[in-house]
Amino acid sequence: MSERPAYPNLKISGTFLHFAAPLFDNLRSVSREHRAQQALEVCFTAWNAVVLADVLNDHLHLDEIRRLTADRPETAVHMEHPTARKRALFVDDERMIGTGEIVRKDNGINLRADARDPYSLPLEPR
Fold it and tell me: Closest by alpha carbon to 26, among 50, 14, 42?
């Protein structure tokens, strides 16, 4: 395991909203809040799977996502896009995302999220 990085001095919620922006920008329906929650879950899954694979060299989750979407090309694209975006634009942010919640505010939606240190995860034998 490598040495712990210095994490960005930014709230994970702001970083994550920037990361997930392409999915949120495509939401145009009346059920926007419900669809936003679904998009958020896709992005959380992709972000954390990439952190586990690239930081802890644990490819189990990323491989499982690919296996589960192999026969559904449209779904696979929805998972591969945030995976590539994480690696291209947020490669230096090695924080995992713990819990996340969308909260409706007068001026739109807000995201509450907490960051987790992947190096503090218990290692499971394989």
Answer: 42
Q: What's this model's pTM, rounded to 2 decimal places? A: 0.78
Of 114, 121, 84, whose CA–CA distance to 4 is shortest? 121
* Token pair belonging to 95: 């924080």
Domain boundary assignment for the chain: 12-118
Q: Tens place of pLDDT for every residue, the chain, 126 residues?
A: 456 666 677 888 888 888 888 876 665 544 566 777 777 888 899 999 999 999 999 999 999 999 999 999 988 988 899 999 999 999 999 999 988 777 767 776 677 888 999 988 876 655
Dihedral angle, C-alpha 56, 57, 61, 66, nearest 10 ° = 150
